[in-house]
Amino acid sequence: MAPPKPQARKFRSQWGLQFALAVAERDPASGAPKTAVCLMCRAFERDETVGAKRRKPKTRVQRFSPPWRPDNMRRHLEQQHAVRWGEYQALSEGEKRVFFPTNVSASVDTDDADDAISTNVMTAVEFLPQELLDLEPSAAVTAVLGQTRTFLIDRDIVNELVRGVLLNGSNGDRRGGSVNLAGFVLQEAEEGEDVDLNEARYAVHVDSLLQFNMCIRYISGGVSFKQAIQLVGAAMEGTPDLGDRSRSGSAITEKQVAALCRVACAVNLQRIKDLLASGGVWAFAVALENGKNAGSPYLDVRLRFEQDGVLHNVHLIAIAIQDMEMDQQSEDLVVRCLDVVAPEWKTQLIGVCCPDGSLSSMPQCAREIVDGLAQDCVAPIFCDANAGQELDQAVQKACGVVFDELFMTTLMGLTGHLRRQRALILEMQGDRCPKFIDGSWQSVVKAMRWLVTNRTRVIQHLEARRPVCTPNLEWWITVIVVTSIADLVEATLAQLRARVVTSSLATHERECLTKLVADLAMITGAMGPLLASQFFSISCDDLVGGAFALNRGAIVSFMKVQGNFASNAMDFLLQNQPATAQVLVDATGSFVLSVLGRIHHHLVESSVTSHRSNDSAVSAIPAFLPNLLCNVRHQDFIAVMKQQRLRLEKRFSADQIEQIEAQHRALRRVYQLEDHVRQRLDSLSISASFGEAWQDGTFGDTDCRLLRGFCGALASAAPDVAKRAATDDEFALINWRKVPFTQSLTDFSLEAILHAQQYRSLACISCASSCFS
């Protein structure tokens, strides 16, 4: 008789704490563990063996399965995580439970196709406390599913924004759910209590915190409500006991997903309101960004503020771009939202910016929002003039006159041919023709400048090889002329990008653009800017564009002064190909007039805007980084403080305001006297971020944290700082498209996605008062 087969060893619950394991998969029938993963692999990289050949770090998570071998578990830890394993063994049981970061997940990563999850949903397991590990599998799952959460939301957020804006605004889109807001219960005062109804709060209860977090996570990926249902269902089907609950009729519905998204939106708005009301935020800015990652365009209205040295950028409301005029309605919508989340916004709002570009590239409603907010504020607001962006866009549009399809096809073929000529590249000592990006005039000019610099050698090569991409004379003249004008423009752009250390940024920008217009008019022979009466004296043969006029003879002279090659080429075309020469002259003149006209139009528009605001609604952003502030005269800094006096007095005491001024004097003094501070500040680049420049707010023994808090609000209004961190969500497309024929400015499904993307980050922002509260 054969001896009985030894019984297989069962997985013991204490192994999880002893060997840093987490159960990743259980048998659906018995609930017994089938797979366990190493939490060391999930939380940390594997240790390198001393003296061993360097290899690419392993990121694969070690998995254990029956037959269970504790010696294999220990061997893996000793060989792959020797340092961490030594630290882990010396800890007590309580310390081992908090050794790993919270919510360390173990993803199923295996080459076995049978173990792969077809829905691409990874099973996440948490390092549970020992009490839960000792429970039966179904009881442990029940404990996780039984976690609930109750949120308290201010009454005005629910009534004015969630019900009044997000839901009523979703015309034709019933995914927002019922306006009755099931689940939101107004807290009633006990009899005899004197409670102000304006301060009453709604309580909203979430029955399953796990389900809530799963929905928010999937919605943040840009999926629709129906897609979220499928993803949640697939995740539950792939997890023991959760799948049984799903099949038993408790699967989530589209209505429930919408309800959970309403809760997330309300919680986010409440968090934003609490942050802006805390002592750590004395002022904030509004940022208007173009939403181009969805099926329909929208305007993303965001709030930016500084707290404890960190600049934050949070979503407030999205405005769907409509074909109809919506300027006033858009402004009213933004004001309505600000009235709720920041009741004192008229004194707190310090600036409005467009990080994606100037206002001219934004929808018309953006200009109305800026003007309306500026007029409502009790003190001047900062709005970066964006002269550099205006100039860049002016030249980009003007280049469309000469960069036609034939020109760009020739340039693309020529640069591609030259980059493939190895013998030519070696002869030129590795100086290869640069690539260019179609649609960027600066990138195209960079390639053209290389061709102009190496024109003689390139022409010799083309005459010897005769490729099909060989350009004609008029093409070369266009390249030379455009490059000459681009040199002046790029020099002006460099001056505009060099941030001045005084508060007269608008004056500096205007002087740069005015000088550029004068220089371009002088070298090209253009006349202007002309008054209306002066146009009667212009010849009929002259080219006219905007407030400028240009004689064709002056254009020819301008081309000939570009060098001997251009002069001889123009003479040849005028004598042998007069029609071609005429087209070339007209195109060049139109290009010059387009550049001049667009720059002059911006100067006139900015002057009118400044006059309309009476120099009190919009002003330029002063220096806010320490490496620039240390060179700002104290009287200039006091002028900035005086400009913000009304806002400062709302949040700072008189003593704190004096401390800010004193810390600026101390910063200048320590910069001049202490070498290590001077070296630290001088080593910062002009493009350094706010956090990199200020760090902990101290310079040597000098405490400048109050000064940092003051400058943080200034930085929030600058378009080139405090940009959102690049996350996977920002690069992903949003599965949203505007409902056809709707006239609503808001859409609940779009708001659900945008608020879900920032749900976790908002939860991590501390609402504690900063050092100047």
Characterise the protein shown here.
The protein has a four-stranded mixed β-sheet. A three-stranded antiparallel β-sheet has the order 1-2-3. It has a three-stranded antiparallel β-sheet with strand order 4-6-5. Helix 29 (654-673) crosses helix 30. The chain is globular. It has 35 helices and 16 strands. It is an alpha+beta fold and 773 residues long. The termini are far apart. It is 51% helix and 10% strand. It folds into four domains: 15-112 and 120-128, no CATH class; 149-273, no CATH class; 393-612, no CATH class; 623-716, no CATH class.
Distance between the termini: 84 Å
Tally of strands: 16
In terms of structural class, how would the helical and strand content be classed? alpha+beta
**Number of domain modules:** 4
Low-confidence stretches: 105-128, 170-178, 189-198, 611-617, 722-731, 767-773
**Shape estimate:** globular
Beta-strand residue fraction:
5-15%
- Helices, by number, come to 35
Question: How helix-rich are the residues, as a percent range?
Answer: 40-55%
- Give the mean pLDDT: 78
How does the major sheet shape up?
A: 4 strands, mixed
Order of the strands making up the biggest sheet = 9-8-7-10
Q: Evaluate the radius of gyration.
A: 33 Å
